[in-house]
Each structure stands twice: as C-alpha cells, then as structure tokens.
Design brief:
single chain, Peptide Deformylase, five-stranded antiparallel sheet, 3 helices, binds 2-phenylethyl (2E)-3-(3,4-dihydroxyphenyl)prop-2-enoate, binds cobalt (II) ion
C-alpha cells in the first residue's frame, strides 16, 4: 500500500475527464487500496482517482467514524436523480480549508462495479448522495468550487494564492 499525492485546485490536471475502467484487475485493486489509504490518512470521506492524477473512473468513499465502511465505485453512472434538491456544505481534499454550500439532487440511483468487478445498483440519499455526486464530478473534471458563483470562485482563488505565498515564506 502507498500514500498517493493529492492534486490541489487550481491544478489543470483536475480538469481531465477520466476514462472508464476496462477490467477490474490487480492494478485497479492496488489503486483502490492506495486511494483508500490516502483518504483515511488525510482524513477524508471521499476521493476520486482524478485527485491522485489517475484518470480512470474509480471512487472510494467511507462515511463511518471508524473508517471501516469502505465503498468502492468503479465506472459509476447515475441512472436516476430526484427533482428534489438538497443543500450541503461541502469540502474537498483538493481544496483544503474551503467549505461552501452546494445544491444537488437529494436522492440518486447509481449503477457501478464494486472492487470485485461485480455490478451493483444502490439508492443513495443524504450525505452519501452528496458525496457520490461530488466524486463523479471529479471524474468529469469538475471541482465543487466550480459550482459556486463566480464571485465566490474568485475569492477562493485569491485565498489559495495567499495561502501558497504564506506557505512559501514559512518553509524552514
Ligand atoms: C467530499 O471531501 C465531500 O478542507 C469529500 O482541510 C465533502 O473528504 C462530499 C477535507 C463534503 C460531501 C460533503 C477537507 C479534509 C476532506 C478539508 C473530503 C481539509 C481536510 C474533505
Ligand atoms: Co473533492
């Protein structure tokens, strides 16, 4: 297992569209293990392969406090979404320190392959629904801040640039 490097917004590689996984083989299983370890180490509740510069359609999610309920979604497809919308304050491992409210479908039905390559279909609502939609956005090259108003996006870019300058000045 290995910890992977997480790309940070506004890295242009976060805008690449990920390709479908052709076969859930040993290489993909290794990627899943490394992504899970990277998410748990952060810690975070969701990570898409795009965020670790692998442009294949793989997501890991674990909403549990004990980090013992790993969900793996390969080639996820939203096959149904509710008209009802929910608002959730989202964050992202690729945009540390930034949290803001995003509106998304309340409930979704998602089809995917699990880590054994078996087809699954689940209904998700609440935080799981938000998290799956957030991570599928990553696979499509979209970061949650790009769903905010352009004023908010420009404030976030300014804040990140300032953090980067301060970090550079603080390094021992
Ligand atoms: C995506 O996000 C998500 O800013 C997963 O300093 C978030 O795991 C989906 C994190 C909220 C739905 C709702 C963020 C860790 C982790 C930070 C994460 C930070 C440290 C974010
Ligand atoms: Co994210």
């Amino acid at each position: 297992m290995a910890l992977l490097n997480i790309l940070h917004f506004p890295d242009p590689r976060l805008h690449k569209v990920a390709k479908p996984v052709a076969a859930v083989n040993a290489r993909i299983k290794q990627l899943v293990n490394d992504m899970a370890q990277t998410m748990y180490d952060a810690p975070g509740i969701g990570l898409a392969a795009t965020q670790v510069d692998v442009h294949e359609r793989v997501i890991v999610i674990d909403l549990s406090d004990e980090q013992n309920e790993l969900r793996v979604l390969i080639n996820p497809e939203i096959v149904w979404a509710s008209d009802e919308i929910q608002t959730y304050e989202e964050g992202c491992l690729s945009v540390p320190g930034v949290y803001d409210e995003v509106k998304r479908a309340s409930e979704i039905k998602v089809q995917f392959l699990d880590q054994n390559g078996d087809a699954q279909i689940i209904d998700a609502d609440g935080l799981l629904s938000v998290c799956i939609q957030h991570e599928i956005d990553h696979l499509n090259g979209k970061v949650f801040v790009e769903r905010l108003s352009s004023l908010k996006q420009s404030r976030i870019r300014t804040k990140i640039a300032k953090q980067k300058r301060e970090q550079a000045a603080t390094v021992s």
